[in-house]
Please model this.
Amino acid sequence: MRQRSTKAGMAEELSAAIGLVWGHIGALQHEEAHALASACLQLWPGDRNLLLLAGYAATELGMPADLDALRHAFGAQPCLELISRRQPA
Model:
């Protein structure tokens, strides 16, 4: 039996993690989505998808998102302006 590479295994795990976070957001479970995305960012720091999902979930919870990191990862995007407008004062 051939072993899969560590890199491929990590890519599959990252894909599953993103799917789980997205599922929580889709089910309006923003607290769980934020907790999971934040924990996953410790394993995959700087992953753009997790960063965006964590920012969205934080915004839905009334928490500040890391707009500097999001802008660095994505540049000027309409979705970031939405997150920016919804930041707590």
Observations:
- DSSP finds five helices and no strands in the chain.
- The helical segments are 6-26, 30-43, 48-60, 67-74, 78-85.
- The chain has one domain: 6-85.
- The two ends are 56 Å apart (CA to CA).
